[in-house]
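New here. Your pick:
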Amino acid sequence: MKTKRSFLFVFPVILCFFSISSTAFAQKIDEEYNNRLRAYTTDERFLPSSILDLIDDPTVPSPLKHFGDVAGAPKVQHNTSEIYGYFAALAASSDRIRWEQIGTSEEGRAINLAIIADELTLGKLDHYKKQLALLADPRKLDVKDLDAVLDDSKLIYYINGGLHSPETGSPEMLTELAYRLVTGTQPNIQEIRNNIIVLINPVSEPDGWDRQTDWYYRYSIHRQNFEDGGMRNPPFWGKYTVHDNNRDGIQVSQELTKAALRTYLEYHPTILLDLHESLPLLYISSGTGPYNETIDPITINEWHMLASHETTQLAVQKLLGVFSWAFYDGWNPGYLFWIANNRNSIGRFYETYGNAGSNTYLRDISTSFYAGDPANKREWYRPDPAPAKVMWSIRNNLNYMQAGVLAGLQYAAQNSRQLLGNFYRKSYNSWQKGLNESPRAFVIPKEQRDPNMAAYLVNNLRTQGIEVHEAVSGSKKGDYVVLMDQPYRNHAYNLLSIQKFPADARYPSYDDVAWTLGYLYGVEVKEAEQVDYDRADLRMIGEEVLVEGAVLGSGNRFAIAYKAQSKVLPLLYKAKEKSRNLKVYVLDAEGAVGGSEQVFGKGSLILEGLNAEHARALAREYGLDLHAVRSGSDPVKREVHLPRIAVYQSWTYTQDEGWVRFTFDQMGIPYTSIHKDHLKAGNLNDKYDVILVPRLRGSVSDFIHEIDTKWGPMPYTKTSEFPSHGFPASTEDMTGGPGFEGIANLSAFVHNGGVLVPFDNSSMLVSQTGIGRELSVANTSGLNHPGSIVRVRARHTDSKILYGYPEVFEIFRGNGPVLSVNQQNRDLMVLQYGVQVPKADIPYSGEILGGNAEIPASQNVAGMEEGRYNAKNYPYLISGMVQNQEQILGQGAIFNVPVGKGRLIAFTFNPMHRYLTHQNMSMVWNTLINWESL
């Protein structure tokens, strides 16, 4: 009979380890390594005992032997090839480690994984993967067999490093940790190696890591003051995403996320630890709450259990400034480590104090506040704080991070069976909820406004590991059904249901608080209290769902019935590429086309000059039906010319610009990336018809001047010394911004007939330059609007920007400035927040002294009859949380402002947020299609 170790019994065992003399081990200690660790650690109180005494293995190279110095040496940073080269050397010299590729980055770099365990375990790796797959799906494991499976299973602990490029400690630390785990003869290391399997992804973002390494040697290595105001990281990390590569878990769009998810679904690790850097001196995550309500309470308690164990073990080693609880909430499921939480495993992260490189700096930690308290203050969650100022090196960083990881690995090794049992129980609980609680299913009906988006939703759910069925017979044939009686029931519910973030939460939300996919994608999704389908009529979907359009009818022209479908604009660009003589017309009135009986709505398109073969190919590729119609009378129509599009990029903030580029690339919409150099060069109308300005941060001064010229010149160019720079954009000098000259040229572009389309905060920045002076920032003190799904209403239902949309629909909006116009200019508002008629739009009906003048009708917008919609039946908030929403109701969501011969189309929200808000993107596509007639 096996005995179960309790936490209390584990604790003294670990205490004993730290007092063991190095002479007790068979192999000799590498004293040179010890000496360098002491030399590079700035204070002995930053050097935990568990980090000392690496083995001097005669056949396996240590970081010192391989690189010429220990990991975390001052002013040394290794690029991806060097890190990978070291892991390859370990794998070549030891049977305790495997090294394999799990993905390829957007720029073609490998994403690799190390698998570490004893030789016997690695020889049975496939067996252990099958055992964990059984524990992950309780439908395939009879309860009577559970003990036998647990006895014959090994926990897998997945460590992810190098996700955020300027957080430079984890790839270096993981080289040393891997060597320790492979060669160590100490009891705790042998226990880890024999009892569990460790996965290490040392550089999960190789593109950004190489750029950061080049940046360090190009610009940071000689810096003396961390707070000098200089840029600590390159303008680009990955090809598209910067910090948001850790916000991709819902959409799974970036290659690093795909690699991590594939790895999870192959190995089913019980614990996934993501290593980050920002907080002094080490934060071990548990979060302040509110916790996501779909997460099993077992997982939430495991967060605290593991954090408590690790903070305790670091306290045993007298490390200062280690804490938990006071950072992050635990609500949003989109972070990379939530790949585990969403699937009944344990997802967690560290934040170690980092210097964005390998320099040593004097740091003031008293200026950092968490849960309202400075980082050097003693609290219940931080009983031994560091002093206000510390001299901090990258070696200190590695010491703290590695000591915490070792404590966590040993806890997992000593409690493997209990943690695996918890994993099974959580999977079982999720399955049972689906069997016994409502809803029993979510249904995606066959008939959708945009079938491509319904297919996209189904494919996303399947990518997540969620089972989706299709009705293959009966009256509901073609419906997609997500049955809740499955192990990932909780995750499916989380993605498809409405979020209700507590409005009285003590601490602000950490990120977006809503992500209901049906609303974000513009897909009708229904909760089903009962499963109204015969199970025999349902087929599990086992392949990617594709929508294949067709050419319907006969005729020499082709019409698209427009409902703001996501693929229409990409189809038009492809059609133009294939048929140079193509002419495209858009309907500005509904009616029959060419004598057909079908009524086509406003915004519908007619394509002339397209041959039948190309038409059929386009219909198949884009999943859109093309209606072949004869020549003849049409409703009111006008020819449209597809615009030359530019996407503006600032050198100080490329995050949202990267998402826009990613969206355009995914959709196949051609564009040109431009930056300050292009604005300063002028003649913008000769090259572009529409300029998009994705969401930027900062003030109008930041928009105009960007990086201070005192740092210049700062080239971002590809050279033999810095080969990762110069992509995806380049400049001889990043400093100075477009300046007043560039802004004047941007203004001239609009005045001369161009269309300028800023998103979110950029709308405020553009208006404050004087382009669109009618717009001003509204006073919305007290408004708290974290990323949520809300209801909006068309003020001009005939606006071309809103073609294909109903009068009332949903958008996603986060915190950002609210713009307004004066009373005389309220007709510039195309779309408003909320559906009720604002007081400002209700015509005055009282007495007028001194005459009978008629009240101007400009504020009495068509279709805004008072009382037509009430707040009870049409509330503003749909999913998420908004505090003091009265500050935004009736304000403009989109403005259409004439500027000279051109237009400023100002979105006061981000319609292209993180490749999530597909329902909102078609307003941008409408703007591009109709750019000449806005």
